[in-house]
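Subject: sequence -> structure tokens, single chain

Hey, anyone have a minute? Need the predicted structure for the following. Not urgent.
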Amino acid sequence: MNMDNSTRAKILVDALPFLEKYYGKTVVVKYGGNAMISDALKEQVMEDIVLLSMVGIKVVLVHGGGPEMSDLMKRLGKEPKFVDGLRVTDSETVEIAEMVLAGKINKSLVNLLQMKGGKAVGLSGIDGQMIRAEFKDEQLGYVGNITKINAKPITTMLEAGYIPVVSTIGCDKKGNIFNINGDTAAGRIASAIGAVRLIMMTDIEGIRQDRDDPNTLIRELKISDAEAMIESGVISGGMIPKVRCCIDALNEGVKASVIIDGRVPHATLMEILTNEGAGTMFKRG
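Reply:
Had a minute. Here:
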């Protein structure tokens, strides 16, 4: 898109109040879904995060990697299995999760952030026992239920000017390794580090009043209204855990949480630096 200098200057001036509002504050971005699969979108997400970091907004990137895990499992002759949306994780599968999440994906995101001019460091929930967990359900195997977040590794990196990139692998005192739901981990991390905003990137534009009508996007939702929509079935299926994570984060001190469409270019900047935002924001009331 061609743009003259006057238009560029106006965009920067319009963004100034938001830059002032978030300067020195911390936001947590949960990154996954289609925005993670498309190379072009991945580059734009990383550019957004580097830009926010460079203007003084502290960003923690928490990532998933379910599709890549499933792909590797199939290549190794192991069929992925799910119960209530959670991956059944035996001892072999948790090793695959560790390789894919804490290894391949985490380091590729760190590398891409640095290629875009940022300072980034990769962490997993095992580092510093950042994500302490326990067995969630016997039938799920090594799927972890978070018992404690040690925020120190993340806050130390933020204070040093780095963008922490966190893979959601957990551990317990006995040395067990757990596969942790990325949405849940992002919410718990956001509350533990005192983030002002939790941004959940997914593959729809937000919460709709009518699930089949994109024109019924709800821009803001109070917790009580979101709970009512879950009860009535308007919010259903895989969206329920994402909404629950947003609600839990608010109840644990995060000022605002939002579900945005990761397929939209620069959705993170639109959410942080404009009045309109880029999805559905959840508020206490």
